[in-house]
Amino acid sequence: MTNVVILAEKPSQAKAYADAFQVQNKTNTYIQLKPDSIFSDGATITWGVGHLVELKEPHDYKKEWKKWKLDQLPMVPDRFQEKVSKGKWEQFQAVKQLFKQADMIVNAADVDREGSNIFYSILRLTGVKKPVKRLWINSLEKDEVRKGFERLQNNEKDLRMFEEAKARQISDWLVGMNASRLFSLHLQKKGYGGHLSIGRVQSPTVYLIYQRHKEIENFVSEPFYQIEGEFQAEKGKYKGLAKIKEKDKAKVQALMDKHRLKEQEPYEGTIENVDKKTKRIKSPKLHSLSTLQSVANRMWKYPPAKVLKIAQQLYEKKLLSYPRTDCNFITNSEFSYLVKKVDDYQRTLGSNFSPVSLKPNKRYVNGSKVEEHYAIIPTKTIPTAKKLEGLSREERNIYNEVLATTLAMFHKDYVYEETVIQTDVHELPFFSKGKREVDLGWKELFPQPKKKKEELLPEVQEGERPEANVHIKESMTQPPKPYTEGQLITMMKTAGKTVEDEEDVEILKEVEGLGTEATRSGIIETIKKQNYITVKKNAVSITDKGIMLCETIDGTLLSSPSMTAKWEAYLRKIGEGEGSKQTFIDNTGKFIEKLIQEAPASVEKVQIRDTGEKKKKWNEPIVTCPSCKNGSIIDRYKFYACSGYKEGCKVTFPKRLAGKSLTPNMIKTLCEKKQTRVLKGFKSKNKKSFSTALKLDEDCSIKFDFAQK
User: Fold this and answer.
1) What is the pLDDT of residues 332-382, one digit of tens each?
2) Residue 267 main-chain phi, psi, to 5 deg
3) Disulfide check for 109: which of 49, 115, 415, 593 has CB 3.0–4.6 Å away?
4) Cα separation of 493 and 313, whole Å?
5) DSSP H or E stretch at residue 11
6) Is 635 in contact with 652 (CB distance < 8 Å)?
7) Which of 416, 399, 225, 185 is nearest to 312 (CA)?
8) Please, are residues 572 and 566 in contact by the beta-carbon 8 Å criterion?
């Protein structure tokens, strides 16, 4: 009898796996499957709840590392260790018990590096040593789940991905814990009241935004001059420009004089050439996560983190393939099911066209370009009208975008006619460009943007002699615009290199970017929470705190997106078995040593700004103790307590109550007024949210007051 235990990353994933089998029993910590053709003795599915385990904090290694002191740096543990995450002990113990009873364990966490990290970190902390297999699927549909469990892979590749993820996690710990303390403490010596959070990837990302801020701030608008012609032909008016663009108006005037041209005087022009070209644009590549994030940000202003969340929801609803992919291609296997479903997909999207070709095209179908995951495409599951109605507007938008992009590869090219007219006036050529849509083709599948007013060129003939007026046109140079969140994803992916065509961006795997496809949106959210950037009307701006961070790291490797990208490239090598985790960690240690040497000089040039943060004083009185009346309630790191504890006052208050943080202001109100207003954000034991006021009893214990409205 073989006892198989399957670890999913989260309960929703475990449920999706269980849906592909018959369930024998369910508990709070696992689902038991009935025996069937795949698991002859049945199987047990258990799960994590987010990260069940995490790296230990500095003070877990050494008590003296709890306090922020320069002489404690660098903090480099002899051996990095994990611990059970706060509040997750019960689930960890359940997983550990199941692992002990197993004959074989299946890693069924997300099929990416972080999924490998989550699984092996848990396995390592349980101390259990059993054979491990890897589930590798790109869809949660029942037949794909069953097929995946029938074809479980060995864990050779899985272990390499774990090595890569662990190297990243440890190096991030080293940089974050050491650099944050290092620079914050030096800045506090200069009078800064807060602290900076510094990260291996987040800091160079902020620096990218800072560089754009400096470009805008230092930009000086300057005039430039061109010669414009206005023409009246037999069938209509049009405008054209001579091939000159100068900051020096005198040079433009000299060209006018050379051709004996004066402003406001009528001339007769000659149409020397009418060049008409039919141009075709192929449908866009299939979506990777970053292209989907960029398009959704441009179309609906969705933040990248929201796009990932929506795509993940659609994956769990079995409508989209795995979202955390950096690939724009599919294999012949996916293409074969897409071909069969073209009509169904069209009905779902509300479109109707005859496919141009039902054969795979290497622009979209290329197995040699697919590594871990293929592009984001619709699954075989065709949603019912009821299921579509149940989708939120955001989910419907993202689903339709992926559906349209997938169907577009079967559609005709977008065709337009480009016309260039050359009109000479006194032998000075003027050029006019016009565009006329011939066939919308694949573009008809997408929401049509409001068309900008384009000056359509009139029908003209070579040799025609239109009336002409010429003048010097003055324009002003424009500053670069702030990044949008969608552009920021692209800039991170290219490590700050400018990409010319944003709408059809093709970034090769060899390009070294900041972060990974799965982590970039999270990094943006982190730097928002750290108050380094703000986003208003989709424009990303840097804050005073962000500017101070960038001035602090300026000149160090933390300000170099390209250098950080090279670190990411080495991490990928670890995942491919060509790099060493220990080498990477050792080099990160050397990098920290270098930062410690550079920090005093780096901080010297920083202008301290008021970022609205006050330096935290742990022993600062919050309020007079309501019990002894002599001492004061102070922050004791993990709880609040009376300063007169040595004199025998035992009053303490928790920092968290029913899942909600209690702030110093709440404690002050309780001590002074004996009750608070109704507060939101509490959670019951079964994770349900509730609101209540708090009151202080005579024995100075905090109680819920549900009577207060």
Assistant:
1) 999 999 999 999 999 999 999 999 999 999 999 999 999 889 999 999 999
2) -135, 170
3) 115
4) 24
5) helix 11-18
6) no
7) 399
8) no
> Residue 451: what pLDDT?
66
User: What is the C-alpha radius of gyration for the chain, rounded to an integer number of angstroms?
Assistant: 32
C-alpha distance from residue 598 to each of 323, 554, 593 (Å): 41, 11, 9
Q: Which long-range contacts (CB under 8 A, 24 or more apart) does 69-75 make?
A: 69/185, 70/181, 70/182, 70/185, 70/186, 72/181, 73/178, 73/181, 73/182, 73/592, 73/596, 74/174, 74/178, 74/589, 74/592, 74/593, 74/596, 75/177, 75/178, 75/181
CB 500 within 8 A of CB 226: no
Amino acid at 484: T
In tens, the pLDDT along 654-680 reads 988 888 888 888 999 988 888 888 888
Rounded distance, CA 114 to CA 350, Å?
A: 38
Residue 659 corresponds to which amino acid? Answer: G
Dist. CA 306–CA 254, nearest whole Å: 56
CB atoms within 10 A of CB 146: 17
**CB-CB neighbours of 633 under 10 Å:** 25
pLDDT at 361: 96
Omega before 74 cis (within 30°)? yes
DSSP-derived 3-state class of residue 607: coil
User: Per mean pLDDT, which range of 115-124, 221-230, 570-579, 604-613 is the poorest?
Assistant: 604-613
pLDDT band at 71, cuts 50/70/90? very high
Q: How far apart are CA 241 and CA 472, in angstroms?
A: 10
**Integer Cα distance of 397 and 403 in angstroms:** 10
What is the C-alpha separation between 608 and 531, in angstroms, rounded? 16
Q: What is the DSSP letter of 659?
A: T
Report the C-alpha gap between 676 and 667 in whole angstroms: 9
Q: What domains appear along the chain, each with residue ranges and CATH number?
A: 170-217+481-604 (1.10.460.10), 223-282+414-476 (2.70.20.10), 289-408 (1.10.290.10), 623-705 (no CATH)
Strand-strand pairing, 656-657 and 652-654: unpaired
Name every residue whose Cβ is closer than 8 Å to that of residue 342 and which is 6 or more positions away in sequence.
Answer: 355, 358, 407, 410
- The structure tokens listed for 330 are 């599919």
| Residue in 428, 432, 429 with CA at minimum distance from that of residue 420 | 432
Report the C-alpha gap between 281 and 415 in whole angstroms.
7
- pLDDT of 331 > 70? The answer is yes
pLDDT in tens, 336-348: 999 999 999 999 9
Specify the amino acid at residue 28.
Answer: N
List, in order, residues 6 or more apart from 351 with CB less than 8 Å away: 404, 407, 444, 445
Q: Which of 534, 548, 702 is nearest to 626 (CA)?
A: 702
Distance (Å, whole) CA 362 – CA 340: 19
Q: How far apart (Å, rounded) are the C-alpha atoms in residues 592 and 589? A: 5
Of 42, 72, 43, 49, residue with least CA distance to 59: 72
